[in-house]
Write a structure and sequence with these properties.
- By secondary structure, the protein is of the alpha+beta class.
- The protein is built from three helices and five strands.
- Helix 1 runs antiparallel to helix 2 and helix 2 runs antiparallel to helix 3.
């Protein structure tokens, strides 16, 4: 008999144990700044102030992608902070596919997106998230008729 081992799911969706926060913003040019300030405030007042800069950068990149590449009316940012890690979920109401350049730790190696240029002014947001997050990925909501997608990432302080 052949044994099959399945990998665990990438990350469970909310709820997680810990303190939970939610921000809902209109899909407007100010959304990335508002999300960045929101997460910065949460992390500054949590057990993980050292993650504030990485968290602000990651959430800004993901919310910017939602703003620039969807027609979603609202963008939702859910944050769970516990003693080990910070989980951030950015949800928009457009389930279209997400191009994942580089490597996503839960999906295994992937090739770089065609034309990805390290010196370009745009197109490196998910590469930044990939380099700073412990894990990240996407989830489509709605089964056979998807109605939304979430880009999530996990931040944790390095072990001492």
């Amino acid at each position: 008999m052949t044994s099959v081992t399945a990998s665990p799911p990438p990350a469970p969706y909310l709820p997680q144990r810990g303190d939970r926060y939610r921000l809902v913003v209109p899909n407007a040019p100010t959304a990335p700044r508002i999300a960045r300030d929101f997460l910065g405030t949460v992390l500054r007042n949590s057990a993980h102030p050292a993650l504030m800069d990485d968290g602000r950068l990651c959430v800004s990149e993901v919310v910017s992608n939602a703003h620039c590449h969807t027609r979603s009316v609202r963008i939702r940012v859910d944050v769970t902070v516990n003693r080990r890690q910070v989980l951030v979920y950015v949800t928009d109401d457009e389930p279209g596919p997400l191009l994942k350049p580089g490597r996503s730790s839960h999906l295994g190696p992937q090739s770089k997106a065609p034309g990805a240029d390290a010196y370009a002014e745009r197109g490196r947001g998910l590469l930044i998230v990939d380099s700073l997050a412990v894990r990240w990925g996407t989830t489509t909501h709605g089964g056979g008729v998807p109605h939304a997608k979430t880009v999530w990432f996990i931040l944790a302080e390095p072990a001492a």
